[in-house]
Fold each of these.
Amino acid sequence: MARKTDKRREDLRIKLLDLAEATIIKGGLPALKARTLATEAGCSVGAIYTVFGDLNDIVLATNGRTFQRLGRDVARAVQARPNASPADQLVIMGTAYLEFAADNTRAWRTLFDLEMSTQMNVPKWYLAELARLFGYIAGPLRQIYPDKPDRDIDLMTRALFSSVHGMVLLGLEQRISAIPRSDMENMIEMVLRGMARP
Amino acid sequence: MARKTDKRREDLRIKLLDLAEATIIKGGLPALKARTLATEAGCSVGAIYTVFGDLNDIVLATNGRTFQRLGRDVARAVQARPNASPADQLVIMGTAYLEFAADNTRAWRTLFDLEMSTQMNVPKWYLAELARLFGYIAGPLRQIYPDKPDRDIDLMTRALFSSVHGMVLLGLEQRISAIPRSDMENMIEMVLRGMARP
């Protein structure tokens, strides 16, 4: 009996997650409402909270999937170019980040729209996903700067990720002015190559 | 008579702008409501729309003031160090941007929270304010790269601004993890000095 209930709960969990992910991909975070989600899943609003703590938990779980897809795309882009120099690898990853954000704008924005404070209990799997993404950047940096202490490599990794994120964010939002994709790629390359000269 | 009406309209305009600015500084964009603004100004909701097209226009006008304050802070920081090298100047400006954003977080966030599309008629004074800010960055870059075409300097200016913005944004939101201010300053300096080596 208990096993049957567990199976049913897990099925509902996956179903809600699939629906929430589709909603966020289509309409972003503002489109996600518990009532609509319940209707689509054919369950009561209360049933949602038997498998997720609150709506934020569902968003966090879909963000986990988005992070995985992003990490996979970034890793694949680098693996496709096995002879790339460390500096080239950084540029390849930066460009892959831009491409992912442009192709998955709403899901990508939701990664950063979710209220997340350090007071909040961020799940371990989420931090692991983030650490994996940052590991991809730290690898080539470590090759470029073999003598730098780990702490500097960590800060540099974070600086590069944040810089590329800023260029992609303001560029896709056309915040300063409209800008063609090729110019955004050039900007990313400028900054990354600037940092990749020891 | 006409002059008296003009004066009254202008007074209401300034009053609404002062109130909207105070609201945004205190509570950010979500705190700004036409009804509350009208109550505070002692006028009808309709009267607001005799001096502003819509609420977005008021936000744009307060953003103009924020931009002016930001530009003034950045310019002052550089002027205070007349012997700074071009690379130093970039670092001084990046640090001033961080400081302004940390001290005026809600008003600064509102600069980027306002929906603004290239389809929208962005006022000339707004674009002029932006151009002035970008001019501060382009100056030292031009000294560092005297032979680069203007187009490259423009892209580099935009790349540097967007990079610093990304580091400040993710840093202040503690998006990746909590980070001390000194580390944020180090990150900004790393990226800017990386770009400031011809």
Note: The mean pLDDT of chain A is 91.
Amino acid sequence: MSEDRYQKGIKYLKNMNPDSFRILEKNLEDVAPDMARYVAEFAYGEIYSRPGLDLKTRELVTIASITTLGSAQTQLKSHIQGALNVGCSPQEIIEVIIQMAVYAGFPKALNGLFSASEVFNERNEKIEK
Amino acid sequence: MSEDRYQKGIKYLKNMNPDSFRILEKNLEDVAPDMARYVAEFAYGEIYSRPGLDLKTRELVTIASITTLGSAQTQLKSHIQGALNVGCSPQEIIEVIIQMAVYAGFPKALNGLFSASEVFNERNEKIEK
Amino acid sequence: MSEDRYQKGIKYLKNMNPDSFRILEKNLEDVAPDMARYVAEFAYGEIYSRPGLDLKTRELVTIASITTLGSAQTQLKSHIQGALNVGCSPQEIIEVIIQMAVYAGFPKALNGLFSASEVFNERNEKIEK
Amino acid sequence: MSEDRYQKGIKYLKNMNPDSFRILEKNLEDVAPDMARYVAEFAYGEIYSRPGLDLKTRELVTIASITTLGSAQTQLKSHIQGALNVGCSPQEIIEVIIQMAVYAGFPKALNGLFSASEVFNERNEKIEK
Amino acid sequence: MSEDRYQKGIKYLKNMNPDSFRILEKNLEDVAPDMARYVAEFAYGEIYSRPGLDLKTRELVTIASITTLGSAQTQLKSHIQGALNVGCSPQEIIEVIIQMAVYAGFPKALNGLFSASEVFNERNEKIEK
Amino acid sequence: MSEDRYQKGIKYLKNMNPDSFRILEKNLEDVAPDMARYVAEFAYGEIYSRPGLDLKTRELVTIASITTLGSAQTQLKSHIQGALNVGCSPQEIIEVIIQMAVYAGFPKALNGLFSASEVFNERNEKIEK
């Protein structure tokens, strides 16, 4: 195992999205605890910690990708949380998802907006108009 | 028709990716010229021209989305061109595509990197190491 | 903005699916009201209002596409409503979705049929045998 | 084996798209001849031969589905041939594919239009304007 | 209709997953009873009954495919049931789904694991550690 | 970096598919050498080297997943090579891909079979009948 990589990932996760990771670890502990480790070690310890792109942009491109997948609303909401946590504004997140109408089609963009709306309501975030 | 919206889109396209749009118009002129108009009018005149997100970020989230689709390499290369044209560095583009390995899987990320490699070679772009 | 295009889209929506659009507008009003406008203006004002294909066929190909996406059951049900509203029979809708087993696989076709079943039950539509 | 079903499928294929099926059989004969049989027996003998939807509409919804998949251009071109063979006009086919921009995104719709353009050129089909 | 093929499929289904098929038949009886017949006749009577691959491997590759689709959790859970019924261990099923992180991305693999967890809980299956 | 994990992955790759990895490393060396490292370290050093599932089954479920993606024929052919290298028979590979017709639709299954046919021809592999 790569202990350093894991610790680095956990540090990023604590900063970016501690709640989602805690829930993930809990949900996986009986079936696949290694999978939570891979999220920490590979996704965060390797990828999000790479230089060359700031965390705000990393969260926005993740939101673009998961909106395009169309079938992972739990993960989409988790990354909308993460994007807000690293300093993206609600408006920036909305702009990314609206733009997905062009590339992934209107149904997936609409479902992405509904997920964003849920997260903003929970956190009492306001969109500037 | 929305003449203003179309002219606005064309202005954005001339700045962002004039070559790709010229080829697109040519390829569509016999079968669906309206589709080229929608690209100008809706995708560029409406979406890319929205405030709230800079063009560099808009191109990077588009690259994330098309890499995730996995089956539109021509459009991916066109947007890698567009990203370079609006000021993204080759390294930023590569970072976005590598990150897609986590969200869209390794095969799509690899194919995205091969497309980026082709565009960089054509334009003689170098990746800083 | 393209006022004419918007008004044309609203006219189509009032005819084809007023309830779905009202809910959509409501759900988007706090996060992305422009997105509801794009649905009216682009999807309905531009695309559904094009000549060359009747509205019944337009709704059936939309049902084929969303069944193939597989992850947008809300939009699928909305278009099953729309198809019924413009004169498609329940049987025609079922035939389209069954056929998707060949092109999009059995799981997506089955989920499409379950969505159709829900809509038909709500509206008390009967399938002729 | 279901001999009747197979013969019924072959009859439909001879009417709808004899060339594509001949090529398919040839390409599969060394690796998976049963797969060609399933195309005849299940896709054509069972599905296309069902009552309740005419063959023109069946081919148009297939075109919608394969355009939405985005990664099966050979099969898309084969069904554009099939659509023309059962009496769809080039314009109807183009309308279906343009509409996919709304549901599957612009990149897939554009690639669908390029495939249609290739087929129309081979057959010297003209779009009425 | 192919009576033999249907009976053969029913025999396989009774052995592999009788509960899921009973529910499926019930859910389809008012809208599309033929679709339940196709599941029996084509999916089970033709495909699962082919020689050349044992049923355990057939269920594991199905789980890989549906996890990759990402949007058919009901069918995924039904095939996790089927895999257990034909003798796959919970650990083997988990290994397949974890591996999908590499090919279909982490969000789809995670959702697959959550579905497996639900099925294992219902059946009181334990993962060996 | 996780040196051990990387060396373990390279050992697996040398056994499973040395040619594909050499080409991959070459294609990525100018744009994203880290991505080749992640393939070795994460995909092979972490995932394929896990206990609980033999390599033959691991390659077959990968083939199922990539056939379902539908848009990564290079990677599909590389894993068909890998499957043969770890002892899968051509017939087992064909059975997996045929079965994908049920879950991912006929177009993707057909394209998978064409890719298998190319690999078998290159290696002069024969299907037993």
Note: Chain D has a mean pLDDT of 96.
